Structures are given as C-alpha cells and as structure tokens.
Automatic annotation (TrEMBL), chain A:
<dbReference type="GO" id="GO:0043190">
    <property type="term" value="C:ATP-binding cassette (ABC) transporter complex"/>
</dbReference>
<feature type="domain" description="ABC-type glycine betaine transport system substrate-binding">
    <location>
        <begin position="47"/>
        <end position="318"/>
    </location>
</feature>
<feature type="signal peptide">
    <location>
        <begin position="1"/>
        <end position="30"/>
    </location>
</feature>
<dbReference type="Pfam" id="PF04069">
    <property type="entry name" value="OpuAC"/>
</dbReference>
<dbReference type="InterPro" id="IPR007210">
    <property type="entry name" value="ABC_Gly_betaine_transp_sub-bd"/>
</dbReference>
<protein>
    <submittedName>
        <fullName>Putative glycine betaine-binding lipoprotein</fullName>
    </submittedName>
</protein>
<keyword id="KW-0449">Lipoprotein</keyword>
<keyword id="KW-0732">Signal</keyword>
<dbReference type="GO" id="GO:0022857">
    <property type="term" value="F:transmembrane transporter activity"/>
</dbReference>
C-alpha cells in the first residue's frame, strides 16, 4: 500500500510546485485591470488596433474607412467592438478599445478621463457636425406645414397616436444609449406626448421605414448626419431656441431643460497610451478628418445599398484619394 | 355540499346507491372536511391576515401602485459606489490584487486558446474538431461537425467563430470546474446540499440579462466581464446536476465498493463519479448550451466574437447579417449538443466489437493528433491561416430580399386573418393594455395578497413568504410601475405560449408523425440563443411590446411543447388501457386520464414557460418592450448603475416570484426536457 | 426472550478446538436517536414495538452471539426485517455495531482502525450482494478485477486473475460485456467472481439469489455447493428461503426481530424446532428430505443386527424409505462397521408424519 501511495504523493508534490511556479511567474503582485488589453489584440504577429464601433451607421462608416486604410495602407489588423457610448469611454480608458472615432459630447466623462485621470487623450475633431432634433416625414410636413413649430404639436397629438402611446401622441425615441432630453422637454413644454423608446436604433429605423412605406405620420427623435434622410425625407420641428442660459440650467438639473439640442462638432478620442505609443496608427487616427457628405456617402452604401462595410469603404477609398491621402502623411 | 346531495336525491339512477350513502355520511362531516382541507385552511389564514392588514394599509397608503412613502431611494449610494469604483479601479488593492488577477487570468486563458486556434489555422481546426467528433461520437456527428465548420467559414465568420470558441472554452472550463466543485460539495455533504440547492434553483430561473450589470460595474466592458457573467450563468446547472448525480448513485453499488475495502478516494473516483456520469455529462451539456446563449448576450458588454456580430447586425436591422452571424452560433450549439449526446449514449454501451484495432484506444487518439498536425502544417504551407476569402458567400443580400418579401406580404392587409401589423395592434389593444392597466390599477396590497395566495396554494408558507417578499422588494425599490408593465407582458405572452404549447404538445403526443416532424425543429429552437429571435420579429410586428412578446412566445414554445408531449406520452399505459377497456372515447381518455395523470408535467411546462418568457421579454428592451428591460439596457448604455441595477434586481425579484407561484411542491430535477 | 435459546458456546459438528472465523458476542445494532444507550438498559428488554414507542429506536440486531467455524457454510435465515442483512454487514463493519464484541480469527474487529479494517475487507472477507452491486460502466472482466484494483494490483496481473475467475464461474466469452447486457444469473456470477477474485478467507452472501428466477436460483445454489466442495471456503449465507437454507447450510441460525431463535443443523431445526415459531416455519418442509436415519432409527433387536440393507447414519429418510421398500424388511444403520440401530416402515413413517418431533418438544 505504501508503494501504491508514493507515486501519488510525488505527483501531488509536483503539482504543488507547478502551481507555485505559475503563481510566481504570473506575479502575485498587482494586476491593474485598467492596463489589460483585449485578448484578441495583436495575435499572430500582426499589429492590431481595436476600434469602438457605435450602433449608428455614421459611426460605422468612420470605422469602416479607418479600418480599410489601416489594414490596406498601413498593414494593421483591426478588431471592432460594438460598445455603447458611455461604456466605450470606460473601455477606452482601460485600453480594451484604442479609439472612439465619433463622440457626441459627454462632458462628465471628458472631465473624469481626459482631465482627471489622463487615461484618454483627445484625438481632435472628426470634421462632421452633429445635430439632434425632432423630425416629421416630409410627406406629412408638406400637407401640414404648421406642425414644424413645437407650439402646434399638441394640435397633432391625436394624429401621432399609436397603439403603444395610449391616448397621447407618440414621440419615438431610439437607443437608450443616445443623448436625449426628451422626457424633460415633453414635460417642460407641456406636450401631450408619450415617449416610446424603440430600444435600439435598428428598431427605430425599421419602424420609421415601415411608417414611411404606409405614408403614416410620425414624430421622431432623430439626428443628422444620417443616411436615412435620403430614403425617408424628414423635416425638423423647431423647438425653443438653444441658449447658453438654458444649457447651463440643464447642466445643473437635466430635468429642467426646455430648449432645443445644441449643434455638436463630433470628436475623436484615443486611449492615452495608444496615443503616445500607437505609432502610425495613432497618428493616422488623429488626422482622420472628413465631411458630412463623405460620411453620408459611405453610410448610404452600407445602410441602403446593403453593401458590407468593408466593400463600401473600399469603394469610397477608391473614389476619394484626395481626401484620405493627407491622413497618412 | 347541497349540490351533491341534491344530485343523489333527484337522480338516483345515475348515482349508484353506494354514492348515495357516501354522500349521506359525508354530510355531517363536510364542514370538518372543509376545514381540514389544506387549501381551504391556507386561504382562511390568508383571509384573516388580509382582513387585519388591508384596512390598515389602505388607511395609510391608499390608491393603486406602490405608496411612495414605502420606497427607499438607493440611487444615491449606487451612484456613489459606481463613482468610487471608476475612480479606484486602478489604485485600490481589491482591484489590483483580486479582481485584477481574475481578469488577467481570463484574458490570458482566452488569448492562449485563441492563439492556439489561429495557429492551427482553418484547416487544422476543421480537421481536429471533425476527427475529435468522430472519435467521441461517430461518423454522423463528425460529418455534422465538418459541414458546420465549413458553413462558419463560408459565411465569412471564421475569425469571430474562433473568438467565440476561445471565449467559450475558457468560460465552459471555468463553469464546469466551479460547478463541479460546488456540486461535489453538495453531493457529499448534506449540509452543503441544503444550502446550495435553493440558491442554484433560483439562479437557474433568472434571466441572463440580470447578471450583466454587476459584472460590468467591477470589470468594465470587455472579455473578462463577459466570461465572468457567462460563468455565473452557466455554472449552476453543472453544480446542480453534479450534486444530484452524486447523491443519486446506486447505494447498492457504493456498498459493494465499500465492502471491497475501497478508500474514500477510490470510492469517489472509481464509483461515485462514474455512476454519476450521465448527470455529469448532462450538466456539461447544459453548461455549454447556457454558456453559448450567454456568450451572445454578453456581447452587450463587449464579449466580442459571433455575439458581437449579431449585436452589430441587430443595430443596423440587417437580418441577413444577423443570420450570417447567428447561424454559426446555432451550428456550434447543435454540434456540441450532438457530440455530447452521442458520447453519453456510448458511455453505457461496450466498445464496438470488431473493427480494426487501430480505430480503438490510444492509437486512434494518436492518429487524430497526427492527422491534425499534418493538415495544420499543410494549411500553413498553403499560406492561409484564416478561412480563404475566395471561399465565402455573402448571404446577406438574398436573405434581406427574402425578408422584405415576407414583410411585404404578411405585414398588413392579408385577407381574413389580417397582417402581422394588425395582430400586433390588436394584441396591444385588447390584451396587453387592459392587462397592464389592470395590474397597475390593482392596489399594491392586492397584488401582494394574490401572489401570497398563489404561492401558498402551490407550495409551503416559505414559498409564499419568498414570493411576497420578492414582490414587496420591487415596490420598495421604487420600480413598481415598470415591473407591473413587464409583468403584464410576461403574463400575456405566457398565456399565448401555454395555449399554443399545450395544443401542439397534446397533438404531438397523439401523432407519431407530427412528433417526428417536430423533433428536429424543436431541437434547433432549443439550442438557439435568445438573441437570435429578436431579429426577424421587429420587421413583422413593429417596434414595441408586440415583437418582444412574439420573440418570447417563439422562444418558450419548444420547451412547453416538448414537456407537454412527453408528459402525456409517459402516462402509465395500463391506466389508459383500462380507460379504453371501459369504452372511453378519445376525448374522454384525454380529459379524464391523460391530462390529470400528466399534471406534474403540465405544471412543469407552465413553470418553464414563465421562466423562458421572462428571459426574452426582458431582452425585448432592445426592440422597444420598454419597462424593466429598457431600464437595464439604459443602465448598461449610460453607465447608470442606479437605474440599471435597480431594474436588474427587480427582474430578479420578478423571476423569483413567478418561479415560486408556478413551482409545484415537488421540485423539478432538470431544466427543460 | 429468544436470546436465551442461544447457546453460550455453540458446538459444531465438525470443529475441534480451531479458532472460529467469526466470533460474535452480545452484538447489538440499534438505529435511532441515542441508540448507544439502549443495549444494557431496561429498555433492551422491551419488544420491538414498545422500544420504538418509548425511545424512537429500532433494534435491528439484538444481543446476538454465535461462532462461524472454519470451512462451514453458516446460514442466517429469517423473514425480511428480522435483522439478518444488518447482521452480515456488521461482520465487516459496513454497518457499525452499536455494542458487543466481534472477532475474526481471534482478532478484535471492533478495535481495528480504518486501514486495518480496509485490509480486512480487501483480503479476508468478500461479500456478494442481492442486487449485485456491479459497476455499470465497466466490463465484466474489469468488474471482477475491481477488488484487486482496489488492492493496488497492476493491470495485467489483475486481469489475468480475473480471467481465471471468469472461467471458474462459467462466464467465458462474456468478458467484454457490460453488466447491463447480462441476465440476472450471469450478473450474480460476476458478483461471485468478484468476491472470489480477492481470494478471501470467508465469503459473505447477502440474499444473493432472491432476485433470480427459481430455475436460475437452483443453478446458482448448485454453483455455490460445488465451489464449497472444491475450496472448503468458509461462507456466511443470508437467506429468507428455508429450502435454500436447508440445501446449503451446515448450520442454520434462525432470526426473528433481531434476535436468535435457534441455531442448529438443518436436521435439528426441522427435527427439533425450538419453539412454535420455528415449528410453523418448517411445517411444510418435506421432512424425509432433511431428516436422517440417525433420528428415525430404533435400537436393533438381536435378530436384526445382521440382516437387511446397510445405511450410513447420514442417509436421508427418503433414501431409507426406498431401501426399506426394496428389501421389504428393516434396514440397518451402520457406522464404521458398528450397527447403531435399525429403521423399519413404522419408524420411517412416524418421521414423515412428524410424530417423532413431539417427544423432542416434550422433552
């Protein structure tokens, strides 16, 4: 029996030694989560860049073109991860994502990560200006031009009623990740509307397209640049004018906002380490700068022509070397 | 009472005289019988409690909905802790020395597997996995594996598939090890079992969605959090089945083993584990299936891989793309399910007689390794590591066209039955809205009382207490109204699911042909991740609660059908035979014999239906079902812990409550059929 | 009650002064709360029902003393619930006895530590179970080799040994099957082979054949008899089947409610039942098959000492009847050339009719 046990004891001893060695090797020291990158990054010798791709198509267009150029012109491998806007800041700070190419303005996050912790660096402007607002379809606005003033919205509440909105008019909102003051606006402007959250942009787009096909009236939270305007022409409803006073009031208490959305120059952000050590890729992403028209071209190829993002990017890149050549210099 | 006596008096012909006397004897004792009936007694106790408490509650906090005075605002502390975590994640010791190492270990693990898979190349991986499937489960499964992997490649999903495989490998290994150890404790120690069982039972009924937020809070977006959420979700079935398997081992065999002088360890390794191998294997299988389904949902928190592709496609309403990414997931699930299933069947059987010696034992394994290595090298030499781009087919276009065609044709204006848009509108108008208004209109104590009564009738006072406490917790957290909204969606969808499920299940139980036709469909449906169901329904049912309901019904239906059909078919044939010998018609047989005898199975079907529907209704937040699911999404999207976590807890409470009020006293032993 | 009938030093027909294989004294096994307080207390005298009512305990084995001699087949018989299965498990402490002494070959089993006890189970006493207790995931051969594996024997060696056992119990050709593919009888042969493989000093059988069909049961009994003839291994055999007990047992211990009712040879049990319970039990036994002429004979008259056929004292009455019927006259019972007595029609008939037992009971 003793002989039967001895090898087993030896095995145990070996296992214990192994575990100890492993622990020593991995280091029982600190493991900073904010410095850990994605397990899929830099595999197989290829230098890789991880880009955050947001759910809307404009952002996909940025990423597609950046990815195409990084891969074909600079020889990187690009991973894309879909992360919602605010978690993306966190992921960027931790280095799980290297860059966000289109940010719609998150002052709180900017304060925390860029100014305080310095884990994220600004990557400059994208060149595109974003605007959020309320929109109605053109076919409806043409017939009822007065709907374009918010003061008349209550008159049309009945028209915009749906099964989901109960007795009130329906204001269709999109993804929960989007910047929105709509709840406060509906309340503060005394509108007889119910906000229905589509839950995702895709759901919202599907719904809008479906409405358009039926030529039904709708009122929707929407934004530009957006390729959908090419398929479903829409007109913006004028909300009370955006002022600095209203903005500063809203900063203190988001529930008190009662004016339109501002116009935002969209920003790029890079992980601070990546910005420093990212070499050509980081330099390229900092220079990435194009117009609303460029972005819309790619967006539309993806969204309405049903091209894959990479094909769309390839097509655009081929046609516009004058735009992207300077980014590589 | 009077009904019985009247009948026996006025209708002596149909009532045999024995009945007569029985009724006569029963008369004086009927009151006593009533009192001694547990149902009546429980209701009476509840009535007394209600009579005392309701006037009090009503006087103090009248009106529908949860009284504001009874809520606790937890958003302050939650926001503070969320800020604290963000500020200290790179400095505090608990992150640096504990969570940091967990996270690093997961990253390392996933990375190692991923690199290995990429190093094998598509040729090596395909050959290796196919040969593995052949060794473990035979030629048919091997062919399935080969075809499935080829499809993954052809769809252009090779790299995401490998990422998902890497993530799954780590998550499943961790789940099996952790679950196995917990199960071992539960299987060997009575005390551990008593502690573990209710916890595991509860964890298994919770929607996957509820696990995401706490994990994200600590680990942030990315693979570590995704793996961890997956482990939390997938380990319980392993633990539970391991414990049950070890406890269920044939006592006679264990005694025989002890009588031969086996040590504790010999007993465990040579008898207890092998005897529980069916359960262990089932546990592994369930763990894999749940991990796969969670790996997809975890894409919401940055899990990457195939799930991320589905998620991306879902954001751009691209049914074709979603299908291209969803199909590999389904195929992976089917392959793993089959492989383990066949391996399980083979466990009991002796090794096949005949055949070359080279096909058995270690030479075969060595052969597998050698062939894989050769093919890997060949693949490397030919210069393609990932699936060759020329060998891919884009299915997005045709699929989307097909979808458009379907939507165009059944969305609206279909004669007689109406289109899906009309269904959705009617469902909202006539079912969901009244139900929601009803639930939100009932005073809060009324709801609590109903929950307590239902739970007590079906279980014990402890069940009732848990269910009521869970419900009250929802109120206290201040999310009563959205919870009632979610509840109304769940209840309505459950009713539809059960009506359809029972009908099809009964039919399938009686028709072998239908059953044969249904089986592969149900198999695939049950292995499909919840996410995949959301894609097509938006197009058909508009944004809102209707598509969520539709997805939930489609998702829960297979389990309900299967359990119902099995329950009815497993009814003791002698009981049925005796009914037939008495000349019962088909309908009578069904009503009087099959359904009553299949009652436990039907109750289980109800329970499963409720749990599964809840899981999808919550994910329905992605397609506009609003309420709690939206709040969780909002919390995830905005990093708003206060909203998200509270909604998550409310979902947990709802799940707990729903499970308890549909849980027959005899607890089920496994999930699904 | 019944315990008074248990002899302090049971004598066996075949023993000299060799050490008994098992020596059990005053053994109790009580199940229930505070079971260890029952033996020796006044409660110990209570009937099963009263004990249960008073203390919540059940005495499965109460105050049992007996010896198992080397080489004998010792049968423990009783109806279900009589405590016989518990008793046999107490012999290797698979069930821990509550009190009493237990020795194997003179060594105190109760004092053994875990390792020593394992050694006892591995090498000295092997058990065959009613429900076989085979490992369903192992082949027949590996099941048989299992006991050897537990002992730490190498694979080749134990397989070779197991192969021998396969032949011994007549399972040749089935080595690679799984237990699930065998009939009940075949499975029990595997169980038997597994027990034999470790070459134990004593075999313990716990109702091994009750789950089998009658015909197969008979085959298996023959098998056990044959094995016993070949190897003379000591066996303790538990059964509830009287005819099985009578067929196999050198001595039979009859149990009821945990206590011993009677210990004796089959002939003693059938011929001289200790009480009404035993008498009832053996009522339907074909006495002529069990009782011998030793019991039936009467002293020979002087003219009978030389004539007629000669029978040994161990001849059953049934055989004697045949001999007497053939010869037409009384037959002599001869042991070592000495005439012990004679049997004639009358005395044989009185045995068959059960009239002889009356005197024994009266005495």
């Amino acid at each position: 029996m003793a002989t039967a046990h001895n090898p087993r004891r030896r095995q145990l001893l070996m296992a214990a030694t192994g575990v100890t060695a492993l622990l020593t090797a991995t280091g029982c020291g600190a493991a900073d989560m904010s410095k850990q990158s994605s397990p899929y990054a830099n595999v197989g010798g290829a230098k890789s860049v991880t880009l955050s791709v947001q759910s809307w198509v404009g952002a996909q267009a940025n990423v597609a073109v950046a990815q195409y150029l990084l891969e074909h012109e600079l020889g990187y491998h690009v991973d894309t991860v879909q992360v919602d806007e605010i978690p993306a800041w966190d992921a960027l700070s931790q280095g799980r994502v290297d860059a966000i190419l289109e940010d719609w303005g998150h002052p709180e996050q900017e304060q925390r990560y860029v100014k305080d912790k310095k884990t994220i660096a600004s990557g400059g402007g994208l060149g595109v200006t974003g605007h959020i607002g309320w929109w109605v379809p053109k076919y409806f606005a043409d017939k009822h031009p007065d709907v374009l003033n918010w003061k008349n919205l209550n008159k049309y509440a009945k028209t915009f009623k749906t099964a989901e909105s109960g007795g009130k008019g329906q204001l269709l909102d999109g993804s929960p990740s989007y910047v929105t003051n709509d709840k406060a606006l509906v309340k503060n402007l005394d509108l007889n509307y119910q906000i229905v959250f589509a839950g995702s942009e895709s759901a919202q787009i599907t719904q809008l397209k479906q409405f358009a096909k039926q030529k039904k009236p709708f009122l929707s939270y929407w934004y530009e640049p957006q390729w959908l305007f090419n398929q479903v022409p829409m007109e913006e409803v004028k909300l009370p004018k955006y002022t600095d006073k209203c903005a500063s009031k809203g900063e203190k208490d988001p529930d008190s906002i009662d004016c339109a959305y501002p116009t935002t120059p969209l920003q790029k952000y890079l992980n601070a380490d990546f910005a420093k050590e990212g070499g050509k890729a980081a330099a390229f992403l900092k220079k990435f700068h194009w117009t609303k028209k460029d972005q819309n071209q790619v967006s539309e190829l993806i969204a309405s022509d049903g091209m894959s993002a990479q094909d769309a990017a390839a097509k655009w890149v081929k046609a516009h070397p004058d735009v992207w050549k300077p980014w590589l210099r | 009472m009077s009904a019985t006596t009247t009948r026996s008096r006025t209708d002596p012909d149909t009532a045999p005289s024995a009945d007569n006397t029985a009724a006569a004897e029963a008369r004086p004792s009927l009151l006593r019988t009533l009192v001694s009936s547990p149902t009546v007694r429980k209701l009476a106790v509840l009535a007394v409690i209600a009579a005392v408490l309701i006037p009090l509650a009503h006087a103090k906090w009248a009106g529908a909905g949860w009284p504001h005075a009874l809520t606790v605002d937890v958003s302050g502390p939650l926001e503070k802790s969320s800020d604290w975590i963000l500020d200290n994640r790179d400095s505090h010791w608990i992150f640096l020395y504990f969570f940091g190492h967990i996270s690093q270990a997961i990253i390392t693990g996933v990375r190692v597997v991923y690199i290995a898979l990429l190093a094998l190349g598509w040729a090596g991986v395909t050959a290796g996995l196919t040969l593995l499937a052949w060794r473990v489960a035979g030629v048919r499964v091997a062919v399935t594996t080969l075809v499935s992997l080829a499809v993954c490649g052809v769809l252009g999903m090779w790299v995401p598939t490998m990422q998902t495989l890497a993530l799954m490998a780590v998550a499943v290994t961790a789940s099996v090890v952790i679950g196995g150890l917990l199960g071992l404790a539960g299987g060997l120690s009575e005390l551990a079992f008593r502690v573990l069982r209710p916890v595991l039972d509860t964890m298994q009924v919770l929607p996957a969605f509820a696990y995401l937020l706490p994990v994200v809070m600590i680990f942030g977006n990315g693979v570590p959090g995704a793996v961890l959420a997956t482990v939390i979700y997938a380990a319980p079935p392993m633990a539970r089945l391991t414990a049950l398997g070890l406890r269920g081992a044939d006592a006679g065999v264990l005694e025989a083993v002890a009588s031969l002088g086996a040590t504790w360890r010999q007993r465990l390794l040579s008898a207890r584990f092998p005897l529980a191998r069916k359960e262990l294997l089932l546990g592994i299988n369930q763990t894999i299936m749940m991990a796969l389904s969670m790996a997809v949902i975890a894409s919401v928190i940055g899990g990457g891989g195939l799930g991320d592709r589905v998620y991306q496609a879902l954001s751009s309403v691209d049914v074709g793309k979603a299908l291209a990414a969803g199909l590999p997931i389904v195929l992976l699930a089917v392959v793993m399910d089959r492989t383990i299933g066949v391996a399980g069947e083979r466990l009991g059987a002796p090794p096949a007689e005949g055949g070359s010696r080279l096909l058995r034992g270690w030479p075969a394994w060595a052969g597998v390794a050698v062939i894989t290595a050769v093919i890997t090298v060949a693949g490397r030499l030919s210069g393609s590591q990932t699936w060759p781009g020329g060998l891919t087919v884009a299915i997005e276009g045709p699929v989307n066209q097909f979808k458009e065609w379907i939507v165009d044709h059944i969305y609206t204006g279909v004669p007689v039955v109406g289109g899906t848009a009309e269904w959705a509108a009617n469902y909202l108008k006539w079912v969901l809205d009244p139900l929601r208004e009803g639930l939100q209109g009932i005073p809060w104590y009324g709801i609590l009382l109903i929950v307590a009564a239902l739970a007590w009738l079906i279980g014990t006072w402890a069940t009732a207490l848990t269910a009521t406490a869970a419900m009250a917790a929802i109120g206290v957290l201040g999310v009563w109204e959205p919870s009632m909204d979610t509840l109304s969606q769940v209840l309505a969808a459950v009713v539809v699911t059960l009506v359809l499920g029972f009908a099809i299940g009964i039919w399938a139980a009686r028709s072998a042909r239908l059953e044969r036709m249904l089986r592969p469909v149900l198999d695939v449906c049950q292995t499909m991740p919840q996410f995949v169901y959301l894609i097509p329904v938006v197009a058909l049912f508009d944004v809102g609660r209707a598509p969520a309901a539709a997805a939930a019904i489609v998702y829960a239906l297979p389990a309900v059908i299967r359990i119902t059909a099995q329950g009815i078919r497993n009814v003791d044939p002698s009981a049925l035979e005796s009914a037939r010998s008495l000349g019962a018609t088909q309908g009578q047989q069904l009503r009087q014999v099959q359904l009553p005898l299949a009652r436990p199975a039907l109750l289980l079907a109800v329970n499963q239906g409720v749990v599964l529907v809840l899981a999808v209704v919550v994910i329905g937040g992605l397609v506009g079902s609003g309420a709690l699911g939206y709040d969780v999404l909002f919390g995830l999207a905005q990093g708003d812990l206060a909203t998200g976590l509270v909604a998550g807890v409310a979902i947990v409470c709802l799940g707990l409550m729903l499970d308890r009020v549909t849980q027959p006293t005899a607890r089920r032993d496994r999930k699904g059929a | 009650m019944a315990t008074t009938l248990a002899p302090e030093t049971p004598d066996s027909p075949k023993t000299g002064d060799r050490t008994p294989v098992f020596s059990v004294r005053d053994m109790w096994k009580v199940f229930g709360p505070k079971a260890d307080r029952v033996p020796g207390s006044p409660d110990a005298e209570l009937s099963a029902a009263d004990l249960r009512a008073r203390t919540g305990c059940t005495a499965a084995v109460r105050d049992v003393s007996f010896d198992v001699e080397p080489g004998e087949v010792f049968v423990v018989m009783g109806l279900s619930g009589s405590g016989k299965s518990t008793l046999v498990r107490c012999l290797t402490r698979l069930i821990e006895p509550t009190s009493g002494t237990l020795k194997i070959d003179g060594e105190d089993v109760m004092a053994m530590d875990k390792a020593r006890l394992r050694d006892l189970r591995r090498h000295r006493a092997a058990m065959v179970f009613q429900h076989f207790g085979l490992l369903p995931h192992r082949s027949v051969l590996d099941n048989i080799a299992y006991g050897l594996e537990i002992q730490g024997m190498g694979k080749a060696e134990r397989r070779a040994k197991a192969a021998e056992m396969v032949e011994k119990v007549g399972l040749t050709g089935l080595e690679r099957r799984r237990p699930g593919q065998l009939s009940g009888g075949q499975q029990q042969r595997v169980g038997l082979a597994r027990a034999l493989a470790v070459d134990p000093e004593v075999l313990l059988f716990d109702e091994p054949f009750s789950a089998l069909d009658p015909l197969i049961r008979r085959d298996m009994q023959e098998e056990v008899i044959r094995l016993h003839h070949e190897e003379r291994r000591t066996m303790v055999f538990i059964t509830h089947d009287l005819s099985e007990a009578l067929r196999l047992g050198d001595r039979i211990m009859l149990m009821r409610d945990g206590g011993i009712v009677q210990i004796g040879t089959p002939e003693e049990i059938v011929g001289s039942p200790a009480d009404e319970y035993v008498r009832d039990f053996v009522r339907d036994v074909p006495r002529e098959q069990v009782l011998t002429v030793r019991r039936a004979m009467r002293p020979a008259k002087s003219d009978e000492e030389d004539g007629g056929p000669a029978l040994t004292p161990g001849t059953t009455v049934a055989d004697a009847i045949e001999a007497v019927a053939r010869s037409g006259g009384p037959a002599r019972v001869v042991d070592g050339g000495r005439c012990l007595g004679v049997v004639d029609h009358a005395c044989l008939l009185s045995v068959v009719a059960g009239l002889d037992g009356k005197e024994a009971a009266a005495a």
